[in-house]
Predict the 3D structure of the following.
Amino acid sequence: VQDSILKEESKVFAKNVIFLCRDLEKDRTACILARQFLRSGTSIGANIHEAVYAQSTSDFLSKLEIALKECHESEYWLDLILESGFINEERGKSLLHQCGTLRRMLVASCRTIKRQKTDSVR
């Protein structure tokens, strides 16, 4: 269940990233920041989606950890876009909240997998 929620939430976030980046295309500086944000923001869901077909638990965990890194990077780019005044505070805070929710879900998933791996070794 957690996986399907994570997949859906990451897809919703990716679509919102795409919409924001499309809106930022008009300004040259914002466009450069938006491209970085577009890469990291859409990569989260791609890595979560890829994790479904992982070859092992370690591979699954690795994909989720990559998604977590991309999520953290997305927060950075979004924060920079927001603080630079390229988007209004309401939109920025909403996206930061979505990203934070994804990050917390990924952290919880990674911890659970690590705990299960440790328990199975004992």
Q: What stands out?
A: Residues 5 and 120 are 25 Å apart (CA to CA). The two ends are 26 Å apart (CA to CA). The chain has a mean pLDDT of 93.
